[in-house]
Amino acid sequence: MSEYQKPPASYYERHIFFCLNERGSGEESCAQHRAQEGFDRCKAQAKAAKLLGPGMVRVNRAGCLDRCAGGPVAVVYPEAVWYTYVDNDDIDEIVESHLKNGKVVERLLTPANVGR
Prior knowledge:
Largest sheet: 4 strands, mixed
Number of domains: 1
CATH topology: Glutaredoxin
Strand content: 15-25%
């Protein structure tokens, strides 16, 4: 058995993905719950706080993350922390607490059993 080797440092300290998927079939999807606005707010707040760039934070759009029932959702890596948010205050709290300071916002966690 080979010895575990710690992976090299990640290019970004944290990477947040926002589901922006819109289902054509009329099924619930994050796009129906103002996901684009959440993404735009997060990107603007992270930029204003000078958190963006190599070694720091990346804010990305994503297609379906398959957790539609909790929508809108975003996930922060490398911690794999899933959030459900409803307004700008929630996004601001995620940016300040988690992206900037590494502290998970417990009240916004997507329940583990929530899927599609």
